């Protein structure tokens, strides 16, 4: 799927590059969803762009996330988002600026998520797009706003979990798995933000910034990302406190269970011992001939249960 925004602000959605007519070539933005190699080859042929940045997506060097030459400036962002199963995953987003055009490459699942989340905002913004510079500024602003939104969403989930555990005092062992998942999600967002900050910083130092002249916007977004990073650290701290709190409560419950088992063991140990002794089939056991031997044995067995209960109650185990 290919989406084009023309200079006339017309929007077109087509299936492949063969459907791009001559009057559509005057676009300011083109977006490739689930892009194929033949589409990349078409862009190379028509506009002479370099796609080497797509060959090193797993590298951590800045050069694998930002690249520029005389003809283009290329960006590779790793965007965390919630998929259809509500699991946070990462998908690559490639943006290339060339002369008066902006090229975007991403997956349809990531695009669907953006459309569901920001459809109204995007439709309102597209009416004011006039050139590739405006489009690039819009994308930069969307990226930083998105990180703020996804961090806020994660913070709400953590707060809801904390409220249930700390205030309502309802928790299970599975909550530790949930905390681990939230920690992982938080880590994905943090890594992605750090990567984005490095990309923007590299862009500010490059030659393309002199052409686009959006340094003020980049500075604002970097400041916003710094604030979001601080909030992410707050999420980490809250999760650590929550995990420690749940672990302590689970440990207290286990200790309570061990106390009960200890009391039960002590209470039945002495009666069992007495019953075991007089259950032996020895002939020379004088107590068996006693007139009151049976009630005495029963009384001793009852007392051996009552005394431990009184002891444990004074120790506040009951």
Write the layout of secondary structure elements.
Blueprint: E1 2-6, E2 11-14, E3 27-33, H1 37-47, E4 66-68, E5 73-82, E6 88-98, E7 101-106, H2 108-126, H3 132-167, H4 174-205, H5 208-212, H6 215-277, H7 293-314
Parallel strand pairs: 3-7
Antiparallel strand pairs: 1-2, 1-3, 4-5, 5-6, 6-7
Structure description:
The protein is α+β, with helices and mostly antiparallel strands and 318 residues long. The chain folds into two domains: 250 residues, no CATH class; 63 residues, Methane Monooxygenase Hydroxylase, Chain G, domain 1 (Up-down Bundle), CATH 1.20.58.340. The chain contains seven helices and seven strands; from the N terminus they run E-E-E-H-E-E-E-E-H-H-H-H-H-H. Strands 2-1-3-7-6-5-4 form a seven-stranded mixed sheet. A hairpin with a 2-residue loop joins strand 6 and strand 7. Helix 3 runs parallel beside helix 6. It is rod-shaped, with a radius of gyration of 34 Å. The two termini are 69 Å apart.
* Alpha-beta classification: alpha+beta
Distance between the termini: 69 Å
Widest sheet: strand ordering:
2-1-3-7-6-5-4
Our count of helices gives: 7
Order of helices and strands: EEEHEEEEHHHHHH
Number of domains: 2
The average pLDDT score comes to: 80
Q: How many strand segments?
A: 7
Helix content: 55-70%
Strand percent estimate: 5-15%
Largest sheet: number of strands, sense, barrel closure? 7 strands, mixed
Oligomer: single chain
Poorly predicted residue ranges: none
What gyration radius follows from the Cα positions, in whole Å?
34 Å
User: What's the overall geometry?
Assistant: rod-shaped
């Amino acid at each position: 799927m290919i989406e084009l925004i023309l200079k006339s602000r017309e929007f077109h959605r087509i299936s492949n590059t063969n459907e791009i007519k001559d009057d559509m070539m005057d676009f300011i933005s083109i977006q490739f969803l689930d892009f194929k190699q033949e589409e990349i080859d078409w862009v190379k042929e028509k506009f002479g762009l370099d796609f080497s940045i797509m060959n090193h997506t797993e590298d951590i060097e800045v050069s694998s996330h930002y690249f520029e030459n005389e003809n283009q400036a290329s960006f590779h962002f790793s965007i965390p988002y919630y998929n259809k199963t509500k699991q946070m995953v990462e998908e690559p987003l490639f943006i290339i600026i060339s002369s008066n055009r902006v090229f975007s490459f991403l997956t349809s699942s990531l695009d669907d998520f953006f459309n569901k989340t920001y459809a109204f905002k995007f439709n309102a913004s597209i009416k004011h797009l006039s050139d590739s510079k405006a489009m690039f500024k819009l994308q930069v602003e969307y990226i930083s706003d998105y990180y703020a939104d996804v961090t806020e969403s994660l913070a709400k989930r953590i707060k809801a979990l904390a409220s249930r555990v700390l205030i309502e005092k309802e928790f299970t062992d599975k909550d530790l798995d949930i905390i681990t998942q939230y920690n992982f999600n938080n880590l994905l967002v943090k890594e992605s933000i750090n990567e984005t900050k490095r990309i923007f910083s590299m862009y500010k130092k490059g030659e393309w910034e002199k052409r686009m002249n959006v340094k003020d916007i980049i500075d604002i977004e970097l400041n916003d990302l710094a604030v979001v990073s601080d909030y992410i650290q707050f999420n980490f701290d809250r999760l650590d406190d929550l995990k420690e709190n749940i672990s302590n409560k689970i440990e207290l419950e286990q200790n309570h269970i061990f106390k009960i088992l200890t009391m039960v063991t002590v209470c039945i140990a002495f009666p069992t011992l007495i019953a075991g002794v007089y259950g032996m089939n020895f002939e020379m056991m004088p107590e068996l001939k006693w007139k009151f031997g049976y009630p005495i044995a029963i009384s001793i067995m009852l007392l051996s249960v009552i005394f431990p209960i009184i002891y444990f109650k004074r120790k506040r185990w009951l």
